[in-house]
């Protein structure tokens, strides 16, 4: 899979821009605040129908612009098709092959991307919400079924939390209605949990040899999905649902007192162990960064396993954050395998022997121009 071209109109600081990309490595080169990350963000938006930098779509519409449009052509093994996102004050439209998609879940997954930015190096030591977001964004691309159940879970969770909050100080809570919400939430939650357990185990399978290679065989990485219910990747969904319902009953008093749902996948986490030691608590910064890099590189292989095609890789100013060994491992892993987009202010710190014939685009003041090869 690769992105053949990209056209922007009214997007951030780009009034209009067009670029034709290489199947291998594409470099956006320029000083800070010129539009390199905006270009990366537009590719991410084209794939995910949302920005990774802001939840407010209006911020993506350029100054004095009525709308913003991102258009690109995706090439896969057996077909080629356009994707288009249009943002306006009225909302967002997503088009696949020129046809507007009523549900974003039917749009997402046609262009798979993996974004690796400096903040991703904090994936291991960051908050649990960062890791839950990582799971949901990556799994949502690979599995429309997961995305569907996640959206349904979040809808019921919002209803249940609103109901608990409404009756936080009121004893007249309708037990029958709450039982219905519990059953709906547990049904969707069991689907989400089963998929997450499976995903984390498969991710571990790919991450372990990568981590071992980077650490020169000195370290073994293991991942543990830390759930609010005692479940393994082998547990049946019906059993997970039963466990969730039992937890709701067990925590009934606390949830009413606090006016929120305390149990479920929205409270879960991933734990990282290096040589059986919790690297989030006791690991060095180097170990934490190696674990994060291993996870991102493992994603590439897992996405290929699950979708049949390699994703597009977005490296947003991340090479400058990696030492020579990690930089070398990253670039060797993706060579001749994954279409890559890379932003940098200079190629001086990048090992040129690892960048074979990159297509370089100069970015300046919202203008993008391809360097002659």
TrEMBL record:
InterPro entries from the UniProt entry: DNA-binding_RecF (IPR001238), DNA-binding_RecF_CS (IPR018078), P-loop_NTPase (IPR027417), RecF/RecN/SMC_N (IPR003395), RecF_2 (IPR042174)
Residues at which ATP binds: 30-37
Database matches in Gene3D superfamilies: P-loop containing nucleotide triphosphate hydrolases, RecF/RecN/SMC, N-terminal domain
Domain named RecF/RecN/SMC N-terminal: residues: 2-349
Keyword Membrane attached: no
PROSITE patterns, sorted: RECF_1 (PS00617), RECF_2 (PS00618)
Domain of life: Bacteria
Keywords: ATP-binding, Cytoplasm, DNA damage, DNA repair, DNA replication, DNA-binding, Nucleotide-binding, SOS response
Main location: cytoplasm
Compartments it resides in: Cytoplasm
Family (UniProt): Belongs to the RecF family.
PANTHER family in the record: DNA REPLICATION AND REPAIR PROTEIN RECF (PTHR32182)
Function summary: The RecF protein is involved in DNA metabolism; it is required for DNA replication and normal SOS inducibility. RecF binds preferentially to single-stranded, linear DNA. It also seems to bind ATP.
Protein's name according to its UniProt entry: DNA replication and repair protein RecF
Gene: recF
């Amino acid at each position: 899979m690769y992105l053949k071209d990209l056209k922007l109109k009214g997007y951030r600081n780009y009034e209009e821009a067009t670029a034709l990309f290489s199947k291998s490595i594409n470099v956006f080169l320029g000083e800070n605040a010129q539009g390199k990350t905006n270009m990366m963000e537009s590719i991410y938006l084209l794939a995910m129908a949302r920005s990774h930098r802001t939840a407010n779509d209006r911020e993506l519409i350029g100054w004095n612009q009525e709308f913003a449009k991102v258009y690109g052509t995706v090439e896969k093994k057996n077909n080629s098709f356009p994707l288009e996102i249009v943002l306006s004050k009225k909302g967002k439209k997503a088009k696949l092959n020129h046809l507007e998609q009523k549900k974003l879940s039917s749009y997402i997954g046609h262009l798979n991307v993996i974004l690796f930015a400096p903040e991703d190096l904090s994936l291991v030591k960051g908050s649990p919400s960062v890791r839950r977001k990582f799971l949901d964004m990556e799994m949502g691309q690979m599995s429309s079924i997961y995305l569907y159940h996640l959206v349904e879970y979040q809808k019921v969770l919002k209803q249940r939390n609103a109901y608990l909050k409404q009756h936080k100080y009121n004893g007249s809570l309708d037990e029958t209605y709450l039982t219905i919400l519990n059953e709906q939430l547990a049904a969707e939650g069991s689907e989400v949990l089963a998929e997450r357990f499976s995903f984390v185990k498969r991710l571990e399978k790919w991450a372990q040899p990568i981590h071992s290679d980077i650490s020169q065989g000195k370290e073994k990485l293991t991942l543990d999905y830390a759930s609010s219910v005692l479940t393994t990747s082998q547990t049946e969904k019906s059993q997970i649902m039963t466990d969730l319902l039992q937890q709701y009953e067990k925590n009934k008093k606390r949830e009413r007192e606090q006016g929120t749902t305390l149990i479920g996948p929205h409270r879960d986490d991933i734990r990282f162990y290096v040589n059986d030691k919790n690297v989030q608590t006791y690991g060095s910064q180097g170990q934490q960064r190696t674990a994060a890099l291993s996870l991102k590189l493992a994603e590439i292989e897992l996405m290929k396993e699950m979708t049949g095609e390699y994703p597009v890789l977005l490296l947003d100013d991340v090479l400058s954050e990696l030492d020579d060994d990690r930089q070398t491992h990253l670039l060797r892993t993706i060579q001749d395998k994954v279409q890559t987009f890379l932003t940098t202010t200079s190629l001086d710190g990048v090992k040129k022997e690892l960048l074979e014939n990159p297509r370089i685009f100069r970015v300046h003041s919202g203008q993008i121009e391809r360097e002659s090869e």
